[in-house]
């Protein structure tokens, strides 16, 4: 019986060329193997690539051909795609068994079946947010996310964020620079955008928000699936508040009363009812909060609503404060901070896509109950002021004041927030 011998790869590269003005979204890949072959592949990103293999009498000649073609492409304006090497993109179907296996390793759930199911769902919806909106693929055999060209690097995601921020800030009068920024962004996050590259898509706040959420999801997913990372990614627990114990029943009743006592019947979200409650403990977040709360005081409970697909990232790193010019369809009229509300349905609207129509409207509905260390509060009379106000630790907006209908609270440091409960609504 003969054994097939697979040639080893000695050198390879992936080059990408994206130019909105030319409607170009092209890729070129070269590979040299130890049997003296050089293979080139080329075509439109996300499409089936054409391929040609050259057989040489020596590896040196194959390498020379590879280097000549690579230099030629670089001179034409191609750039090297920022991919983790030796990875081949592979599209697969994600089964619930695969997701459960991944999720069970990340977050402590105390053996509770409902909590385990919830964790699996949060991983699932995080993955779905990526693959449903772009041609980002998930390989269950390796547990990695890839673009149409391979596994992207964390550095590529970071650079893409910078470009996306510049795209969002660009004025319509600078259309040439605007197109260049989009081209650079798509070189970092390759996407199959069809046969026609339309710059006007990136004028839409919804598209900018969609791209921003894709980067967030990729960040969280990449961190949880890197096989080289031995440390615990999720230092947290998520345990269901039991309905079978007196303490659990009392906690549920208290949270239901807190939710119902502050809902606004004019909000669309007021139709939702509290279904389940999960207690959250992120030790690093709790320790930082305890220190800050002891310093500034005035701790209050606030609701914070978010899409289910964002929860995996929140459980990984807590609530974050985006850069001052970060992409957000939901406004931040009182400065760049973490927003919460004592008015339950004001926050719940953010979990039901009332404010933001991007993404999947079929996600389950959750809201976080958080501790906010408000410290010395500033009460603004209008929203045009430069906030945070010097000498104050937070901003407290009273309903009917500063042009807002609902109560809002804003803190400007992540150390001022601690997650207590994750509440699910139906």
Automatic annotation (TrEMBL):
InterPro entries: ARTD/PARP (IPR050800), Poly(ADP-ribose)pol_cat_dom (IPR012317), Poly(ADP-ribose)pol_reg_dom_sf (IPR036616), WGR_dom_sf (IPR036930), WGR_domain (IPR008893), YehF/YfeS-like_WGR (IPR049809). PROSITE patterns: PARP_CATALYTIC (PS51059), WGR (PS51977). GO terms for molecular function: NAD+ poly-ADP-ribosyltransferase activity; NAD+-protein mono-ADP-ribosyltransferase activity. One of its GO terms (biological process) is protein poly-ADP-ribosylation. Keywords: Glycosyltransferase, NAD, Transferase. It is an enzyme of class 2 (transferase). Gene3D superfamilies: 3.90.228.10, Poly(ADP-ribose) polymerase, regulatory domain (1.20.142.10), WGR domain (2.20.140.10). SUPFAM superfamilies: ADP-ribosylation, Domain of poly(ADP-ribose) polymerase, WGR domain-like. Pfam families: PARP, WGR. Signal peptide: none annotated. It comes from the Bacteria. Its EC number is 2.4.2.30. It catalyses: NAD(+) + (ADP-D-ribosyl)n-acceptor = nicotinamide + (ADP-D-ribosyl)n+1-acceptor + H(+). CDD domains: WGR_MMR_like. Residues 222-426 form the PARP catalytic domain. Residues 6-92 form the WGR domain. The keyword NAD applies. This is NAD(+) ADP-ribosyltransferase. It comes from Stanieria cyanosphaera (strain ATCC 29371 / PCC 7437).
